[in-house]
Amino acid sequence: MFGHTAGMLRWSFLLTIVVILLYSRSTDSIRWLALGQSNKLWNHAQHCPRTRFERKRYGLAGVQTRLCKRHADLMPIIMKSASQSVMICQQQFKNYRWNCSSVRQVPKLPPDLTKGTREQALVYALSAAAVAHGIAKACSSGTIAYCPCGNAVSGAKFDDYIYIFQRKGCSDNVPYGQKVSKEWTKIKKFKAAMRLQQQQQQQQQQKQHYKQQFQRSRYRNRQRVQSQRSYHDDIIYMRENTNVYPYLHKKHKRIFLAPRARMNHHNYRVGRNIINHMLELKCKCHGVSGSCNLKTCWKVLPPLMQVGEMLKKKYSRAAEVRWLSGGNSARYSVEPYALVGRVTEDDLVYIRKSPDYCTEDPRVGSIGTQGRTCNATEQSSAGCDSMCCGRGHEIVFEYVISNCRCRYVHCCYVECDRCRELAEKHVCK
């Protein structure tokens, strides 16, 4: 009986892992960035995917499809955010070995965006930030009818002995943008995984019951046997305890998530929260002859490109982590542990080192740098020494079409001719 129960427990555990991984794959990914490639204008519920094939085409999970049907007016903004995420990522990394070209393959995800690398961390954070940024801006511009302005700036103050009244302006609604971003990117398949977890716990309790009955019939020293049993169980189940942990929200709800899923959620949160510290105060003066006795002030977010630059800095400082658990089986405290230095809730994290991206290797998502253009005079990442990975480069001459003989035409524009010129280009071997 004990052997049969143990076998059932192992199969149940394996089934739980498979289901969790399937759920993580279907909902916890950036496949939805494929929305940026759509030429459709999704502004009505009937435009949302109706079949699994359509969902798969745009990389949408069931949760995202339902959100599309309930709030179709948000979809044009989310689609624009997806397009901007890809564009900004490629713009910022065009002079790096990893040039973010793999994001163009969505909804298919190459290994560099699924293995838990720092590149994956960046793309997840950038996509979440783009949605939060776009929604916050749309609220203040009136694009979303039911979304109000953000926190108002009001009050009065003395400035150089002149009484200045600050009238309320319409600020970007960052909290609402973050809320939509969180709903769009979070996993909704919690209940099924938790049910499987509860079933596993029930089977574990049943196993303990049968085991105790078996041990009572053979041993009299219950304390000694109980101690041996606990130690034995710790050894047996150490593998499952170190590979799949419960994930704790602030409300201490236990949820089954794989390490990469927890990494993705952490980086999503970093992307959403980064815009909290990037609000800028803008004011417009009113008054006679520019006296500025009355000012209208509001808080605005900078362009998304600046948000991307901030995340790029975090990318360079991203921390490699392992997820540690402590406590007993009834309660866990799961936190990312940095292998080098310390990690905070504002840091990007990754769980696997990136390849050097020097040579083509589909197994790790590297397209290599052979044939890439480089700058022979720079020592930065765009320089030929770094870009070509020591293989050297060659000089190629090709004709390019560019503006020439430009002149000012009254009134009022600049007119140029198009000329064909021979240009020198450095290409990695």
Would you give an account of this structure?
- The chain folds into 2 domains: 2-146 and 173-276 and 304-361, no CATH class; 369-428, Wnt (Wingless and Int-1), C-terminal domain (Endo-n-acetylneuraminidase fold), CATH 3.30.2460.
- The protein has 429 residues and is α+β, with helices and mostly antiparallel strands.
- Mean pLDDT is 77; it is low at 17-27, 156-165, 189-193, 224-255 and 326-334.
- Helix 5 (118-141) runs antiparallel to helix 11 (304-316) and helix 6 runs antiparallel to helix 10.
- The chain contains 12 helices and 14 strands.
- 33% of the residues are buried.
- A 4-stranded mixed β-sheet has the order 1-2-6-5, with no helix packed on it. A 3-stranded mixed β-sheet has the order 8-7-9.
- The protein is globular, with a radius of gyration of 28 Å.
- It is 41% helix and 20% strand.
Strand content: 15-25%
Order of helices and strands: HHHHHEEHHHHEEHEEHEEEEEEHEE
Average pLDDT, to the nearest integer? 77
Instruction: Note the main sheet.
Output: 4 strands, mixed
Strand order of the largest sheet: 1-2-6-5
Shape: globular
Distance between the termini: 66 Å
Per DSSP, the total helix count is: 12
Helical content, roughly? 40-55%
Short description:
This protein is of the alpha+beta class. The chain is built from twelve helices and 14 strands. The longest helix has 27 residues, at 190-216.
Give me some keywords for this one.
429 residues; alpha+beta; Endo-n-acetylneuraminidase fold; 2 domains; four-stranded mixed sheet; three-stranded mixed sheet; 12 helices; 14 strands; secreted
